[in-house]
Amino acid sequence: MPAVRCYTGYRGQEAPRSISRGLLIFLPHTCQSRGELAAAALGQESVARAPVNLVLTAVFERSAGKYDSRASRYGHLEIGHAVQNIYLQVTALGLGTVVVGAFVDDRVQAALLHLQKEEPLAIMPVGRLP
Q1: CA nearest 40: which of 12, 18, 60?
Q2: Could you say which of 27, 40, 53, 58 has the lowest number of CB atoms within 10 Å?
Q3: Helix or strand or coil: residue 102?
Q4: Are strands 17-19 and 7-10 parallel, antiparallel or unpaired?
């Protein structure tokens, strides 16, 4: 599915590295701090306390050449599929997650070192269940 190239995943606190030929990119260390990301997510405790926060973003222009105005729709569908798979895998590992959609886009982009072409769509803090 070509639209899968619309999304990129980010994980904080390690050296930048690209995998899977751009289908899914983890850019650890792109977050200035977990606190900055949590503040961008309106102070949500799950984001502040999680050892890993997956920030799912979209670059709709990557698919716009082929799909024109439908690129945004396909990108949102693919993010939904990614979220479902993350939930399934996190649960299989005995961990917990939640989709956070309440955040300030510009502040999330700033926390990710101003990756302005990336449109944040969801934050998924991952950690142990209480």
Answers
A1: 12
A2: 27
A3: coil
A4: unpaired
Residue 13 φ/ψ region, left for φ over 0, alpha for ψ in the -120 to 50 degree band, beta for the rest? left
Contact in structure between 57 and 122 (CB atoms under 8 Å): no
What's the confidence (pLDDT) of residue 69?
Answer: 83
pTM of the shown model: 0.75
Contacts of 105 (CB under 8 A, 6+ apart): 119, 120
Q: What is the tens place of the pLDDT at every residue in 27-84?
A: 555 445 678 889 999 999 999 988 888 888 887 777 787 788 888 888 888 889 999 9
Q: What is the CATH number of the domain that holds 28?
A: 3.40.109.10
Residue 108 has a CB neighbour count (10 Å cut-off) of 24
Spatial neighbors of 20 by CB under 8 A, at least 6 apart, are none
Whole-angstrom CA distances from 42 to 31, 33, 39, 62, 96 are 16, 15, 5, 29, 20
111: containing domain: 2-128
Question: What is the tally of structural domains in the chain?
Answer: 1
